[in-house]
Amino acid sequence: MVLWNFWHCCLWHTKWWAMVASFGELIFSVSLFWTGAVLSNTVHVIVSGMVFLVLIHGGPAAATMPPKPLLKSLQYAVTTSFGSICYGSLFTAAIRTLRWEIRGIRSKIGSNECLLCCIDFLFHIVETLVRFFNKYAYVQIAVNGQSFNRSARDAWELFQSTGIESLVAYDCSGAILLMSTILGGLITGTCMGVWTYFKQSDKAVMVGSTSMLMGMILVGLTVVVVESAVTSIYICYAEDPLLIQRWDPEFFEQMSEALHQRLQYRSARARQILNGRLDHLPHTSSI
């Protein structure tokens, strides 16, 4: 972050270094987004490894649970799996940098803004898909210790073969966690803004906005841990449902019943669509 600010302040407004500064800003932007993605995905792999250890040993209080599981998961994430984490994070960083550059171009030109808006929207869709499949691929990395490419392929095949995506499609935990992050930021910003208003009213807006941002960041750090745990449970259930059954039989029954209902609904819906198409086909009389 410090290098990025130094580069931007020193070279961006220099006439002779305009092209060099643009290229350097692009490189530092990629590194900034890449660093953030690596840190976030490292936490994701650590939490996924912890969840897998808890499930495979039947609970955190099991006699077979290894000592200091958090330290073991951390060591595994920053050594064996760190190369795969960096490799997978590069895709997200590149897409975010392209979106950032497109938004910069949109603010400088007035023509073809609609085209740039459409391109930005397409990159947003691609980024969402990449992040969606990446988080399941990182669970495979934490569980099986595979490379990123193989983990992403195995996660996709696992979704296709088990039908677990029908549960993920109806999962509301992401929306709840997002609302929790926003609510935490709003509460923090409102409290600090009101307190500052009675102390120094001219700085209430600035302090409130900064506090809201910091509150969202702090709550977001907690939310990442919860989201990683939910993602890990889905993958572990798809890999071996007995892991969930040994850990919590009642929760296993609830997941199995929900998956069975979703698969039944999808089969009935597909059968209904197929019958509707067959009804619209022209009837041919036998000769």
TrEMBL record:
Name this protein carries in UniProt: Choline transporter-like protein
Keywords recorded for this protein, A-Z: Membrane, Transmembrane, Transmembrane helix
Topology of the protein relative to the lipid bilayer: Multi-pass membrane protein
Function as written in the Swiss-Prot or TrEMBL entry: Choline transporter.
Molecular function GO labels: transmembrane transporter activity
Residues passing through the membrane, by range: 16-35, 42-62, 74-98, 175-198, 210-237
Keyword field contains Iron: no
Subcellular location: Cell membrane; Membrane
Pfam families hit by this protein: Choline_transpo
GO CC terms: plasma membrane
Family per record: Belongs to the CTL (choline transporter-like) family.
